[in-house]
Design a protein that fits this description.
Elements (H helix, E strand, L loop, with lengths): L2 H43 L1 E7 L3 H15 L2 E7 L1 H9 L6 E4 L2 H9 L7 E6 L1 E5 L17 E4 L4 H16 L1 H9 L1 E5 L2 H9 L5 E5 H6 L3 E4 L8 E7 L6 H10 L3 H9 L4
Parallel strand pairs: 1-2, 1-3, 6-7, 6-8
Antiparallel strand pairs: 3-10, 4-10, 5-8, 5-9
Length: 268
């Protein structure tokens, strides 16, 4: 064999080796890319986006943690006032499950065909939170000079507060007048009411009993004849691409585990 033939043979062998290495690397990369894409796709298919009102954040987070463990999925929570969440939904925000602290808003998104139906998720009542020694009983919020903070009726807690005040007005117009005269502000949402009382800008505020228990403030019960039964709701979005997983989450809300979580948080 001539030197030229040896050289050609050597070049051909080198080209063959390089081709084999390139093929191996390509296959390895393709498998890695496919695996990565598949995992990303599975992760996307196993993620639920929940719209959750401020007042339900803590309890829904506990429920979500439990559901994630059982279903090996991911849950993302978008937390705000119910009225804010509705606005976001109308603006095109992605959502699989919608929680509402107010029947007005869950009815609205049902009428606009965002959901087909909904169910009652939890129940509670109202209570007075206080940062002042002057407020130890319900009647104290009617005393002259007491600063009372409530929420604006646009928010769920504000709407429920108005129902409570309407019952006071029907039962005792004089008491209602005194309480009304002590209202110094109507806040945008329940967290604002609690913060105002904590900052001692108000002596007392009207909130959900469940939030009162988590507020680390003094709690003053509202008499049954004035108090109201508060309902929170939940529904699956028609546009959800994870309809099966979303329905499994709704079914999970009726489980004994969730009922125990709700009870420990003070819900009925």
């Amino acid at each position: 064999m001539t030197n030229r033939s040896k050289w050609v043979k050597s070049v051909l062998i080198s080209i063959f080796v390089v081709a084999v290495l390139v093929a191996v690397l390509f296959c390895t990369y393709s498998q890695f890319a496919f695996s990565k894409t598949t995992k990303a796709q599975n992760s996307k298919n196993n993620k639920l986006v929940l719209f959750v009102p401020n007042t339900l954040e803590t309890v829904v987070e506990k429920i979500a943690d439990q559901f994630e463990k059982e279903k090996n999925c991911k849950i993302e929570m978008n937390v705000a006032g119910t009225h804010v969440l509705v606005t976001q939904l109308k603006s095109g925000a992605s959502c699989d499950i919608f929680f509402s602290a107010d029947k007005r808003y869950i009815d609205e998104i049902k009428e606009k065909r965002y959901i087909n139906s909904y169910l009652t998720f939890a129940k509670t009542t109202l209570a007075i939170v206080s940062s002042s020694k002057k407020v130890k009983s319900f009647e104290d919020i009617s005393k002259k000079g007491i600063k009372l903070c409530i929420a604006d009726p646009v928010s769920p807690i504000g709407m429920w507060t108005q129902k409570f005040l309407s019952k006071v007005k029907n039962e005792s117009p004089t008491l209602y007048k005194k309480i009304s005269q002590n209202v110094i502000s109507q806040e945008f949402q329940i967290t604002d009411v609690i913060q105002k009382v904590k900052a001692m800008q108000a002596d007392a505020g009207v909130v959900y009993l469940t939030d009162a228990k988590n507020s680390k403030l003094g709690i003053v019960p509202i008499p049954d004849k004035y108090n109201v039964q508060v309902y929170h709701y939940v529904g699956v979005l028609k546009t959800s691409e994870k309809n099966k997983l979303a329905k499994e989450f709704i079914e999970f809300l009726s489980s004994k585990k969730v009922k125990a979580i709700l009870k420990s948080a003070g819900y009925e």
